[in-house]
Amino acid sequence: MKTYLIEIKLNGEWQKAEITAKETLLEVLRNKLGATEVKNGCGKGDCGSCAVILDGKAVNSCLTLAFQANGKEITTLRGIGNENKPHPIQKSFVQKGAIQCGFCTAGMVVSAKALLDQNPKPSRQEIREAISGNLCRCTGYEKIIDAVQDVALESKP
């Protein structure tokens, strides 16, 4: 099978990967670039656990072919914050109890970050719409919406 070399800016660092035409961005991120924080939930774009920020927009990496990311910037949960320096969204998720089993958390945080980057003061409805592609069976969404809204309210105008 023919392979191609792509280069992406992953969490601020340019990286190369050899791919086939059929590989998804999810497969390349997890299996070739070690970004295991990007979860493989359904593989069909239904759950949002594989969400990443691709050139400023939240996308499901399971529905994106890897070659579509060539030359582009990708941010995963690891690029947003970490245990030593968590992003305000991550802190708010913890404070509001918006994390239970944790499987959807990476995708939720990524979707929330993409929203707040584009719209720093979203309404509850806009938050709801931004996370509508992310399934969570544990929290019931209200705590997640509260967490994102708190970050928006605390951000500078």
TrEMBL record:
InterPro entries: 2Fe-2S-bd, 2Fe-2S-bd_dom_sf, 2Fe-2S_ferredoxin-like_sf, 2Fe-2S_ferredoxin-type, 2Fe2S_fd_BS, Beta-grasp_dom_sf, Diverse_Oxidoreductases. The keyword Metal-binding applies. Pfam families: Fer2, Fer2_2. Residues 4-80 form the 2Fe-2S ferredoxin-type domain. Keywords: 2Fe-2S, Iron, Iron-sulfur, Metal-binding, Oxidoreductase. CDD domains: fer2. GO terms for molecular function: 2 iron, 2 sulfur cluster binding; metal ion binding; oxidoreductase activity. This is 2Fe-2S ferredoxin-type domain-containing protein.
